[in-house]
Write a structure and sequence with these properties.
binds potassium ion, 2 domains, 16 helices, about 20% strand, alpha/beta, 19 strands, UDP-N-acetylmuramoyl-L-alanine:D-glutamate ligase, twelve-stranded mixed β-sheet, about 450 residues, Rossmann fold, seven-stranded parallel β-sheet, binds ligand LZDS7PUF
């Protein structure tokens, strides 16, 4: 797992105050990190255009021009004239060795975005916005210095300084970043970083259900009961996912006579030896209030998804101990309102996903929250984890039902709610990444099939 930070200015300050480094030294390493990438990937004399802003992000870019000048055909182009102390000093140094400043944005082999980094605020002016749009239209390899400017610049790779920032893992950032590498700033990353309660999940953090014990039977691996709702297909997809991910037994609990796959069981009530529940997928108005109360009349671990977030019953669910909630953005907005935490629109949530996850988990520290999205955020008490590995192939009906089934399966096999959420989410995204077909063609059945090959 890698650490994520709200801001890195305090980490820089510690470098100055405790490690006796300077802004100049950190900046030189920042620029050198980009120079090294370019030297390793582009032949000498390639044309490099570095678009700079007025602050220290721009200063990074100007320092980069000095490091590459003469070995590469380097030009500086100012989106905003250098203004910060470091930017002016870097400009003086660059001009002293003959770095060229161009009055227009020229075609090139490599384009570096050093307009703005962590100092971005508000909106771009029309002029800057059009420069960035012109940059995006250039046929060049695109490198973002520290952070793609305003996440409007669309990078092939983002070389970020010192540490990963949380803002890079908002959903709106995903299309701008390209690959991500961290550049060290004069000390190793482990020295530069401090503890963080927010971590980025790596695919190899996945801990699959184990079947190490030979002396076992189907009861050894849990029994999951899933509420079968009005849209019975949703419950069936969750149930098949859970069976595929190792639950020993899976029962659909409902009141309709429906056709179900022969591998699943059906009952009008929660079976005696049930070890976990799942509720909400395709639920609709299938369960009366009494039937819902009966389904929940236990202290079993529970995954709650989909329709439940629009029902008053969710407030009772929030009182349970072992609960995983798996809303998407719209369902989370509905939950925040119902729980009297915030009354916001989806686009406000999407801009501040970490903030609202933290607010929810502060009020309900015993609940594990998985907020779906391009970058999944999993919150529990004061901790949060990000799964960035999802792809747009998952944007299809039923993907969420599969995810709930995977998480519920691990719950039924004894995983803690947090571990079930993290590993269910990693398995979900890994199955999608392993899919060999075209991304538009991935179906929930392909996902379920992919689970057995993890
Ligand atoms: N540890 C590290 O991360 C290090 C980072 N470095 C680099 O420093 C920048 C942060 O530098 P800073 O000067 O704080 O801020 P920026 O350069 O990112 O941006 C500030 C300038 O950007 C202009 N700005 C801000 N918002 C807008 C906007 N909406 N439209 C246009 N321009 C904007 C602002 O201009 P003003 O005229 O408004 O003042 C600022 O001048 C970090 O990203 C790294 O690249 C260090 O080099 C090493 C350590
Ligand atoms: K930038």
């Amino acid at each position: 797992m890698q650490k994520l930070f709200d801001e890195v200015a305090s980490l820089d300050k510690r470098c100055y105050d405790e490690f006796f480094l300077s802004e100049d030294i950190l900046m030189e390493h920042a620029a050198n990190g980009i120079a090294a990438y370019i030297r390793n990937n582009f032949k000498k004399n390639s044309k490099i255009v570095i678009v700079c802003g007025s602050g220290n992000n721009g200063a990074d870019g100007i320092a980069l021009s000095r490091l590459l000048h003469a070995d590469y055909d380097v030009y500086l182009f100012y989106a905003k004239k250098p203004a910060s102390k470091m930017a002016l000093l870097q400009q003086k140094r660059a001009l002293a060795i003959g770095v060229r400043e161009s009055a227009e944005l020229e075609s090139c082999d490599v384009l570096v975005d050093a307009i703005v980094g962590t100092g971005f605020s508000g909106e771009f002016s029309k002029e800057i916005a059009s420069i960035i749009d012109e940059m995006n239209a250039l046929n060049a390899f695109k490198i973002a210095c520290d952070i793609p400017s305003g996440y409007r610049f669309l990078a092939d790779i983002t070389l970020t300084m010192g540490a990963l920032k949380k803002s890079m893992f908002l959903d709106g950032s995903k299309d701008a970043l390209g690959d991500i590498r961290v550049v060290d700033l004069g000390v190793s990353r482990d020295i530069y970083e401090r503890d963080s309660n927010c971590k980025l999940l790596d695919l190899d953090d996945l801990r699959l259900p184990s079947r190490a014990k030979k002396d076992s039977h189907k009861g050894s691996y849990g029994h999951l009961a899933i509420a079968s709702g009005q849209m019975s297909g949703a419950g069936i997809m969750s149930a098949l996912s859970a069976l595929r991910f190792g639950s020993g037994l899976v029962t659909l609990v409902g009141f309709e006579k429906i056709e179900i796959p022969h591998t699943l069981m059906y009952s009008h009530e929660v079976p005696q030896n049930t070890t976990a529940l799942a509720l909400g997928m395709g639920l609709g108005a299938e369960f009366s209030a009494q039937e819902l109360e009966k389904f929940l009349d236990n202290a079993l671990p529970l995954v709650a998804d989909a329709d439940i977030f629009h029902m008053q019953a969710v407030l009772d669910i929030l009182k349970r101990e072992d609960v995983v909630l798996t809303p998407h953005a719209k369902e989370f907005v509905s939950l925040l309102k119902r729980a009297n935490i915030a009354d916001i629109a989806v686009d406000e949530l999407q801009k501040e996903r970490f903030k609202y996850v933290e607010m929810f988990c502060k009020k309900y520290p015993h609940v594990t929250l998985l907020l779906k999205g391009a970058n999944v955020i999993i919150g529990k008490d004061s901790e949060c984890f990000v799964n960035p590995h999802g792809t747009q192939a998952l944007a299809k009906g039923g993907s969420g039902d599969v995810l709930s089934g995977l998480i519920a399966s691990l719950l039924s096999q004894g995983y803690s709610p947090l571990d079930a959420a993290m590993n269910g989410s990693l398995a979900h995204t890994k199955a999608a990444l392993h899919y060999s077909g075209a991304d538009y063609s991935l179906t929930p059945d392909d996902l379920i099939e992919g689970i057995c090959k993890l």
